[in-house]
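Is this the right way to post structure tokens for a design question? Let me know if I should format differently. Anyway, here goes:
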């Protein structure tokens, strides 16, 4: 059996290192990267408006109630609101995969809306509720985990 010299060993080690670095680089370059928002720059500029709207929402005498019970997401509006004056949308936001995000129009038939979550992928979800009532904008958000 022929013995490998120390010079040959160093060359083999460098070649193995380069191959591993190239393999890792190729693997990482092919990973899907989701931005938090597609138009994050515009959203960043308008962030103060969102803060003001959320502050106004928190000042309501009765809060919007967002409940999750493993099968349904239940959104209940204050009883003192008229359901035919409500409009808006519900965004089910998946931070780890923007392809799973869902926009649902707000139902104006009643002051509550029930959304089944059986079709949602397991993991962390955020509910972003944007709604209007009598010309005023409101915003609320909550999070839940589908098991």
């Amino acid at each position: 059996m022929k013995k490998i010299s120390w010079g040959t060993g160093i060359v083999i080690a460098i070649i193995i290192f380069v191959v591993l670095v190239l393999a890792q680089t190729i693997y990482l370059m092919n990973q899907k990267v989701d931005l938090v928002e597609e138009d994050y720059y515009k959203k960043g500029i308008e962030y103060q408006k969102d803060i003001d709207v959320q502050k106004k929402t928190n000042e309501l005498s009765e809060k919007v109630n967002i409940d999750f019970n493993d099968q349904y997401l239940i959104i209940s509006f204050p009883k003192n609101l008229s359901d035919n004056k409500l409009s808006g949308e519900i965004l089910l936001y998946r931070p780890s995969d923007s392809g799973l995000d869902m926009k649902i129009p707000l139902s104006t038939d009643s002051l509550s809306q029930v959304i089944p979550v059986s079709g949602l992928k397991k993991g962390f979800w955020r509910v972003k509720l944007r709604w209007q009532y009598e010309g005023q904008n409101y915003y609320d958000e909550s999070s839940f985990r589908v098991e």
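Format looks fine. Someone answered above. Worth noting: The first helix runs from residue 6 to 29. The CA atoms of residues 131 and 137 lie 6 Å apart.
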